[in-house]
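Quick start: what a row looks like.
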Amino acid sequence: MNFLNIYTSPTQTFTKLSEKPKWLIPLIIVVIVSILLSLVAMSKTNWDEQRAKVREMLEKQNVPQERIDKIMTSMNPKTGLIRGIIAVLIITPLGILIFTLILNLLIPLLGTSGSFKKTFAVTTNSALMRIPGAIVKAILMFIKGSSDISTSLTLFLPKMTHQGFLYGLFSRIDFFTIWELILVGLGLKVLFNISGKKSYYVVFGLWLLYIIISSIFPARMGG
């Protein structure tokens, strides 16, 4: 199966997946691309600037100075690289897995029986949309010479402070994420023969719930 067809013929790709669900190779590709993007981001990170921002935020939160000093010491390229790779290896597949589990639980509400393998095939293949997203982000990092770039709504709000609910909300409305979610909705519709736009309502409803909650509680939701 040519996984590149997900970009040009998504409906045809999902039709083939309904006959033989495949998820391992797309998942591996997404993880590898995420690691590569993380490496680029680390190479373009201004650590002095990042430490200054974090210190200012922690001081506003009245964090003890001893704790701040410890955090500042841990913020360096080597530690950041190791943590970044470990985070990608864990968070990327875990995030897709949790999303799949929740979707699969909700599918019966749409009038059909769920299948974890089929749902996982939909989410992993749709996640291949992260590849063009990673390419665009990497190009922006090289052009700007910084990892502080965006492909979300914050792109149109450059003067907005990088804190608070609104910034957290807008930063999660990423154009490539929306593309990925559209494909998830399409994939569910095709593989489970769901009528109308119900699959899209479920996918985007779940996503909106997530970005609202994660914007309110960013530290606990990985924001």
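That is the whole record. The chain has a mean pLDDT of 89. The radius of gyration is 19 Å.
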